[in-house]
Amino acid sequence: MKIDKIIKQITEKDYNEILEQFRSNKSEKFMCLFTALREGVDEEVIFENLGISEAAYYTLKSRLVDKVQQYLYLNIPDERIALLKNVSNIDRLLFKFPKEVAVALLLKMEEDLVAHDMQNELTLVYNALKKIYINSPKYYTYTQKYNKSVAFTLSIDKAETLLLEFNKTLRDYFLSHSEKDKSILILYKKELSHLSAIYASHHIKVFSKLADVQFALYVKEPSAMVDDDTIENNLRDIIHVFKNYPDDKAYTYYMHYVDLLYFEYYFNASSLKNAQLYLEKMKNRSKDYVFCDRYFFTSAVFIAILSYYDFKNIKADLHKDLNDFSFQIDEDNFIDTILWSVLNAYALMYAQKYSLAIQQLNNLLNQFSFKNYRQVEMEVKALLALLYILNGRSELSEGLIRSISKWVSDNEGSIAEKLHLFLRLLKLSSNNKKKEVKVQLVNKIVEEFYKETDITLCFLNKIGLETSHVEVLSN
């Protein structure tokens, strides 16, 4: 457990309450360590301030983990916790309460659990009612309800797993555009639609529609969308479910991500006023986004943000505005890290902070293996080569250009053709032709490279070059 990161991420309220617990218990060493980790103090300084050995420090830190973990566990703000506590007392109801009282309480639990679509817990309630009515005709009624609830539980679990697998595959497809990944996405989508048609569960309905929306935004395979509703109608249906089940806290969190999908939808539909509205909402809620990226392909929005700033011709503001988003990236998530690094590199490029952009991409290439994403590796290298040229260090771009050239010569198709065009652009910077001729050539290649949005490229042709960049390439 990364206690340093956890302590920095907890709310100010939780931080102060934990600190007060240490203060009231006169746990000065815990209080000192807790505060130091919150402030990001170096470990050597902490050793010195606490006056303890390294071994004692790690023992203290381990005990601090237990205390913070216990506090967070006992203070989860969720009304459904009370329901779970009631369900855990079912055995006591059966053996300690009169039949009429036990039944009344169980039926109240049933009502609340149905409202929350908590099918797993409902199976326990119906199992208890079966036991109570073992000698009554109602036994058959609750046996049926129990069996139905078990089926519902399994179907919801299956639908949720399908959505997780859908989004995992969608990430891969976004980078690779593999036909195999596309076929798998279509199968996941069909299975979710099938489950939604069989089981009247609002959770399954939402899972299915989330997959449909993301498929329409990022895959766009017409043959697999013949029977689908429009993106706007699907999003409206999801919002309708959220409003009908306000006590389901999961939906409260999903709403943040639906804002993201609305932004993508409105931007793709060229409705910039509405897109801007949802972009502002995303800025206000962005700290929540990546924490729940298992349900959504969250990082796709990074490329959409790039395109939006390019379309609005406000690219110079991108670096400054990124600070408003405060995205929290999971460093173990390869694809999220790639897209976030690319977004930052572009932002730094348009702020003319070329050295920092170069450092960002070099760190990315050194940190990860692009074994299964060679095309994306070539795009990163192409952008890095451009940055070296813009930074006046053209000699460092030569090795990158050779690497890309080799890949292009070994591959065919639209991706290789696009990268070949970009290579011609990069090589012009070292061409000895007159500047006027080079300017014409650069502009011609730039126009050809950006004249259409080729979805087979991940990011390289999603945002254009500035006049100042063309000037450097033409010198």
Question: What is the β-strand count?
Answer: 0
Intertermini distance:
53 Å
What is the count of helical runs?
24
What's the pLDDT, averaged over the residues?
Answer: 84
Low-confidence stretches: none
Give the biggest beta sheet: none
| H-E order | HHHHHHHHHHHHHHHHHHHHHHHH
What share of residues is helical? over 70%
Structural class: mainly alpha
Portion of residues in beta strands equals under 5%
Rg, Cα atoms, Å: 28 Å
Shape estimate: globular
Notes on the protein architecture:
The protein is mainly alpha-helical. Among the domains are: 3-74; 80-136, no CATH class; 369-474. 74% of the residues lie in helices and 0% in strands. The protein contains 24 helices and no strands. It has helices spanning 3-9, 12-24, 28-39, 43-50, 54-74, 80-88, 90-96, 99-115, 119-132, 138-176, 179-198, 202-218, 231-244, 249-268, 272-285, 300-311, 318-325, 334-350, 354-367, 374-390, 398-410, 414-427, 435-450, 467-474. Helix 1 (3-9) packs across helix 3 (28-39) and helix 11 (179-198) packs antiparallel against helix 12 (202-218). The radius of gyration is 28 Å and the shape is globular. The mean pLDDT is 84.
Mind sketching the topology for me?
Elements: H1 3-9, H2 12-24, H3 28-39, H4 43-50, H5 54-74, H6 80-88, H7 90-96, H8 99-115, H9 119-132, H10 138-176, H11 179-198, H12 202-218, H13 231-244, H14 249-268, H15 272-285, H16 300-311, H17 318-325, H18 334-350, H19 354-367, H20 374-390, H21 398-410, H22 414-427, H23 435-450, H24 467-474
